[in-house]
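Below: protein 1.
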Amino acid sequence: GLRSENAAHRIAVRWDGPRATHTAVFIPRRDTGSTLTVLAGGRLFPGLHHQACFDVRETPGELHVAYASRDGSTRVSVDTQMAAQFEGSTLFANLEEASKFFQKDSAGYSATRDRHRLDGLRLTTSSWQVQPVHVRAAHSSFFDDLHRFPPGSATLDCALLMRDVPVTWSPLAPMLVPEVPLPLPAGNTARSE
């Protein structure tokens, strides 16, 4: 009943728990064209959402998605065209392997206003289907930020497109994030006064 343009910066993660290794997706930033989603963020829609203006153009063979956040902190632009076959990935041998990787980690945990809590959400679909696309151009001020990602640490590997797939989003229990002390850069020492 509700349609809107939305974008999520997603990072696949793996961590060791007390009994097993877990995998999921960490979503440090979500942007939306919906004012309702921003106002209800964290309640109706898990995670912190930022208001953005979207420019989306789609044809059967091409897709252009661009947006700029209203706070000026994030700009993204991606231009793709449908590809006859999956190629160019250094992480996945074929389309099936790439598809399974993303399908198995349907749980995502999003940043909130509380830095010690992540909101959880699971994507479920009765018709998982991805298509390979060729990326003609991709820019993200989030992933291009050298303070956040040192050179070479965030690179585009491949792109997949899901179209006209029925999805259901189900909330998951929030994940608590413990305070983790960050290491000091070499040559610096901690001092209290």
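Below: protein 2.
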Amino acid sequence: MWRFQDPYDPLAPTLLEELIAASVSAEAGGAVFAYARANGIDLLLRDPEFQRFLKTGRFDLIVGVDGVTDVSALDRLQTIAAEFPRLRTKVFFHDRPATTFHPKFSWFRGLKGGIALVGSGNLTVGGLTTNWEAFAIVPLTPAGARAAEAEWQRWKALHAFQLRDVSDSAVRARAAKNIATRPDRNVHDDIPRPGRPNSASEALIVEVPRASTRWNQANLDQSSFVNFFHANDPRRRVQLWHVNDSGKIAADPEIRPGVAVKSKNFRIELRAAAGLPYPSPDRPIAVFVATGFRRFLYMLLMPSSPHYRQVAEILAKGSRSPKRQMKRLALSADQLSSAWPGSPLWSYSGT
């Protein structure tokens, strides 16, 4: 089964999402990537779902160091491996001239079989989420999964000398050289970036309801969840960048799976609301603007925000929600910009 990671297709899966999905029912697995960056490593190994797998399953991760992979990536692998004893990390190091270590594939084995993923994406932000990439998802029977694992072990034994620890001095010297010689096009590949809204961007304004002590999980109607966030598939991940009242954007995205509950409500957790008391009588308002491939800027407006009254008026005038439901308004970024020209969403700084 072929899959294309396409930054112009909001419904396309990402390699990151499929790797996480494959880990959910796995007992063991392995992956090898030619190149790795620290933030790409974080996207996969810091994902809560993947970490649940790492706590109980065995996972071998091998990265190359012929290019791109730098010292910060090695440091990140070492840090995370120290937290998860079942995660075993190695670096493929060789001295063959005019030859590049270049594979990118992974495998997972569970009780009922397994999955292999083979494609073009590396362990970088671009390779996992934002580049044009292609990969194949190959289901494995129980016998096929066992055979794949046996081949993996055979290959590792064959290259025991080339599979070095991330702390190996020769490995780190090569990685340090990559920092100095990497192409300009790769310099920012390890920094997740939200992008900027354009005339084709969509926007959404919602009142955030009280939900016990967990109101930071903003409830949404199903239409918004599916048609705006494109998060109806539980494997999908939404990336959110918070912009504060003064226009400062968070350095790192909030990466959220969509959460569906039995009541058919849908919710997305907002870091900006964590620890804040729910106000009364006015409700908080969240404003989202799409900037690309399941990537969104957002602002959480509390009643004390200098922007609150203006946005509340836009919402009150445009919302067609039934009286007993939270007000919601879907509109274009151009419409929102015309109604709220001074929004920090159009002039944020910091990333």
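The first helix runs from residue 15 to 23.
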